[in-house]
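User: Can you help me understand a structure? I only have the sequence.
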Amino acid sequence: MCKSIKLTSSLMLFLCALLLSNVVIAKEKPLPASCQTNCVAPFGEVLGMGMGDVPAYSNCNADCVFFSPNKKQGTYTGIKWQCVEYARRWLFRNKGVVYGDVDVAADIWALNQVTRIKDDKKITMTSFPNGNEQAPQVGDLIIYAKAYLKTGHVAVISGIDEKTQKIKVIEQNYKNTKWPAADYSRKISYTQQDGKYWLLDTYVLGWKRVVN
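Assistant: Let's start by predicting it. Here is the structure, written out as tokens:
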């Protein structure tokens, strides 16, 4: 922008230089020490690629909180590179919706709707408590209670193997390790008893589903 302005005074030159310096400072916001030390994988490194070509990035470790917002096509997806950000970005890419702001991942459990990007229409998001007659499905969000790390956690179901009774999930900021395969970060066992489905993972509240 500065190059297109004809400098007619030293004041304009000073203002232009000041503007450029502010832009540089904004782009070079430093990572906090907690995001640079004891990293399982370097902050921002791609760990895997979820359905719909949605990359998951390393958050260094569970203690790292970098207050830098991420956006997808102008839509806010969350703070880099938290689990909440990945789930919202995945919904944006694959279903064209996003959920609202939450303080921690566990708060997603209380939400009952999402917003469709193209027209701001409110879409129902249904909760299925763990031990439900409704089987989990690919694309559902698994929500963990706040007792897990005082924040909870959210992951997206990317595959279900009924033969081995394993669910594949994709996520950010769980262990911050490279995914073992292209389509999942880890597997969760489940069981079916008396017509009800149980995810066998500590702190799981249940799963959430966007009803298009």
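Now, to help you interpret it: Residues 1-8, 20-26 have pLDDT under 50 and may be disordered. Residues 10-27 form the longest helix (18 residues). Let me know which part you'd like to focus on.
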